[in-house]
């Protein structure tokens, strides 16, 4: 199955919207570890999640991960370019992204922040227009 950029962006957007109602876990404010690497299964094991595979293609592998009450999307990419293109499209839909080398975790801010304590990575935030209450909106932008 060949996945196009719009399909991948739409998948990411649907995941963000579907997970927006999911609960977040406890705080993990400890210093983030070195950024993890590996396959989707290896990253899921480090995160102690139970992955439910959604996409298994050459370019991207994507699963819904569950850790306790927390749910998030974990995706791995064949290339850095594929990851960059996916992030570029997905961020238009808002959300919180934990980014590592050839992998991304997407979910609620608290969930992704806690995950950073297990996987390392860099926290990024999606578009301010699709992320009500996010840090981009603290400047007083009201609709």
UniProtKB/TrEMBL annotation:
Alphabetical keyword list: Signal
UniProt KW Signal keyword: yes
Region feature Disordered, mapped onto this chain: 120-143
First and last residue of the signal peptide: 1-23
Protein's UniProt name: Lipoprotein
């Amino acid at each position: 199955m060949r996945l196009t950029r719009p399909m991948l962006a739409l998948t990411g957007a649907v995941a963000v919207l579907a997970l927006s109602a999911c609960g977040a876990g406890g705080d993990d404010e400890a210093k983030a570890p070195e950024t993890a690497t590996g396959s989707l299964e290896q990253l899921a094991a480090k995160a102690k999640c139970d992955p439910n595979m959604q996409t298994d293609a050459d370019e991207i592998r994507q699963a819904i991960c569950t850790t306790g009450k927390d749910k998030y999307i974990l995706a791995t990419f064949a290339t850095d370019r594929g990851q960059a293109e996916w992030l570029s499209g997905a961020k238009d839909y808002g959300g919180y992204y934990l980014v590592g080398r050839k992998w991304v975790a997407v979910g609620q801010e608290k969930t992704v922040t806690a995950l950073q304590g297990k996987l390392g990575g860099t926290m990024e935030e999606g578009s301010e227009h699709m992320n009500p209450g996010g840090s981009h909106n603290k400047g007083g932008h009201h609709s």
